[in-house]
Amino acid sequence: MRRSAGETKAAILAAARERFAADGYEKATIRAVAADAGIDPAMVMRYFGTKDKLFASAAEFDLRLPDLSQVPRERLGEMVIRHFLERWHADDVLQVLLRTGVTNETAARRMREVFGTQLAPVIAVFAGDQAATRAALVASQVLGMALCRYILKFPPAADMADEEVIEWLAPTLQRYLTGG
Q: How confident is the model at residue 1, as a pLDDT?
């Protein structure tokens, strides 16, 4: 069955996300991604050029942050952790970034870009000139929980209900977002 260019590219990206998530950046190969997508490795190179460019495309991610200016100030921590839990469950791109970002500078740079360009501006609406610092602190909690819960699967974090995670982390995020 012949695929369109768009379908082929989508199949490559889906295979790349799975391969990077399973093997990490270092061990994932263009050949393995191509095999997973059911195409010749030359097609991966044709569409993406290099492994770095393939990874960058596979790791495109929109945090889809809500408009926090409309959230009551005292509920910001809760809304932020609730949103991130929903994003972690929605797809595996953040897990790919986190898993590979720990050991690979390209992935770490991509993770910094995602959080730096998407989280800090949203927080700036109410945090002003401390937005970057507050965003980094929020990211430390969100990514730390994600690492423990979804990648390392530390008990009991891996087994906690979302509402329990929210109950524990919301006060800390609230302090990072609005504390003096």
A: 63
